Amino acid sequence: MKPFLLLATRAEDYAADAEYQSFLRYCGLAEGELRRIRLEAEPLPTLDLADYSGILLGGSPFNSSDPEESKTEVQVRVERELGVLLDRVVPEDYPFLGACYGVGTLGRHQGAVIDTTYAEPISAVEVTLTDDGAADPLLAGLPASFAAYVGHKEACATLPASAVLLASSVTCPVQMFRVGKNVYATQFHPELDVDALVGRISTYRHAGYFPPEQADEYMERARATVVDQPEAILRAFVTRYARG
Predict the structure, then answer these.
(1) Mind listing the UniProt keywords for this protein, alphabetically (predicted)?
(2) I want to staple 231 with a disulfide (CB 3.0 to 4.6 A). Which of 26, 134, 195, 212 is the partner?
């Protein structure tokens, strides 16, 4: 099988490695089957898309909607490189799934309004499939509504004209969309289980997602939730697009 590619942007080694392990686990892949490029550490090399089965984009501390003058040189570079990559991915309808940061990145690329209107604190929310979502192959077998972990400062306020809405929630109308037949983005994190979320809360307690003194409270809330459906999306992505 040709490997999948994970594009990551987390500067903290613990968070980056935990994210990689989460994608390995829920994609059902061995390390040699999921290659990783840490974009915050090195420029994105020229990719031959034919070398891979598909691309996964992990979450990020970056916010696409931040004022340009406030962005670091690294963020500006990463956004430029991802934009160039999507210039190829979207026209080719190449298998792509972006988790959380994918909504801002793919949405912005496609002309969506990305802003802070529908930001969600770190929590589990009820995600509901649209009719198009229920018919989508990546979501086949999932219940009409399921719990998913979220935590983001920005979201898609208006769906781009090129996109099909697949899932929504009361607090964030755009939880998942598709462009073409094979290019996806989720606002929720399909790769997170409770242990990974608790670890991420600890890592990002001073990142502005919540008052740092409330980190322990957020961890306890996470431990009290049951989230076991979204991971199936990752396995379905791998099953559908694995080739080689």
Answers:
(1) Glutamine amidotransferase, Transferase
(2) 26
Which neighbouring-strand residues pair with 113?
158
Dist. CA 115–CA 138, nearest whole Å? 27
Cα separation of 132 and 126, whole Å?
18
Q: Which residues contact 88 (CB under 8 A, 6 or more apart)?
A: 49, 94
How many Å from the N-terminal Cα to the C-terminal Cα in the chain?
4
- Tokens 């219940």, located at residue: 143
Fold of 4-241: Rossmann fold (3.40.50)
Going from N- to C-terminal start, the domains of the chain cover: 4-241
pLDDT tens profile 35-89: 999 999 999 999 999 999 999 999 999 999 999 999 999 999 999 999 999 999 9
| E strands present in the chain | 4-8, 34-38, 55-57, 96-99, 113-115, 120-129, 145-152, 155-158, 163-168, 176-179, 183-186
Half-sphere exposure of 51 (CA within 13 A, CB side): 6
Residues in the chain: 244
Long-range pairs, 13-17, Cβ under 8 A, ≥24: 14/199, 14/203, 15/199, 15/200, 15/203, 15/204
Stated pTM of the model: 0.95
Q: What is the C-alpha to C-alpha distance for residues 99 and 120, in angstroms, rounded to an integer?
A: 15
pLDDT value of position 138? 98
